[in-house]
Amino acid sequence: MKDQIKRMRVGEGRISGAISIFLGTLSLVGILCFKFPEQLTTKEFREVYTAEMVENLMLGGIIATFLFALVSILLNKNKQNAIIGICLGVLTIVFGGITVKGRAVEEISWSIGLDWLILDLLIMVVLFVPIELFFPKNKLQSKFHEEWKTDLIYFGISHLAIQLFGVITKKPAVAFFGWMNLEEVHVWISELPFLVELFLALFITDLFQYWAHRFFHSHHYLWRFHSIHHSTQNMDWLAGSRTHFMDIFFTRSVSYMPLYILGFSTLTFNVYILFIAIHAVLIHANTRINFGFLKYIITTPQYHHWHHCEEPEHYGNNFAVVFPFIDKIFGTYYLPGKEWPKGTGLVDASFPKGFVKQLFFPFTKNPFKNDLLPEEKSKR
Ligand SMILES: [Zn+2]
Ligand SMILES: [Zn+2]
Asked: Which residues cross the membrane (predicted)?
């Protein structure tokens, strides 16, 4: 079932057609960000780039849209995708894509992170599409499997709501620890060398994440929400985004708590966010790349695919997202040599398809016929 859709291969002109549509769409949406920066871009993220950078990116995006469309026309008998790509490129030019200039932005009370969504999507595609194309784990799996659009919507929503998530996940940290005087801890952390501070930030957040994650696996009602993340049968770079709002809110609130209260520097915070954004995508990717001895220090796709394993006897392992030794400490480490799980997903769950249905479903309904927790199943 899951390999119904034929995987694209280099030389057929289908990949170039898809890339042309992808870049054309990003360029067109990018133009909207130039026109309505107050509403569609976020203050925090605007500080990361300059007007000149995004103007050049826009121009490069339009040129690349046409180049990939041209390659697709030359290689593929079916011209449909190339034509769509060209139309998107032309529309972007009509809306001023070539001459557009970044302008000063007024502050308004709300905005959505469309700029962050475009740039993150672009970076992820540049990094992970070649990795999955040339070093795949499952060689038959297509990027455009049955549920890729749902996963893309999850990716999109979590990026657009970046400010909202930022604000609400900070609230519990402030509520619980705001009254404490942690001045001495802040001074101690600020005096640490950068790499030590970064390691500490990664370690403490992963420790908090570990227990939040394990809690979601060991509580019947919470497992309904987290099992959505485990429902994916086609592990790939987009699949990790399939995470219910409640799951993101709770797990992120708990794991970010140390970052909010212990006084890590802005640099550490930003490097942490960048690292986690890329690494979390990597560990879900459909790639056999195994990073040699590094797999004992940092989690790899093989490691996290075992966490998503569909065989009940291996449920309830590998909760750590960054450091496998945290699982070692708490007895949940599982990495059998070079072996990979036969399949990923959940054997006895039935979820409705689509983002909106999955958003409401777990509040009132149970996706499992047999209401056993992963750990209970693994002991059967
Ligand atoms: Zn899990
Ligand atoms: Zn996962």
From this structure: 15-37, 57-75, 82-100, 112-131, 152-168, 188-208, 259-282
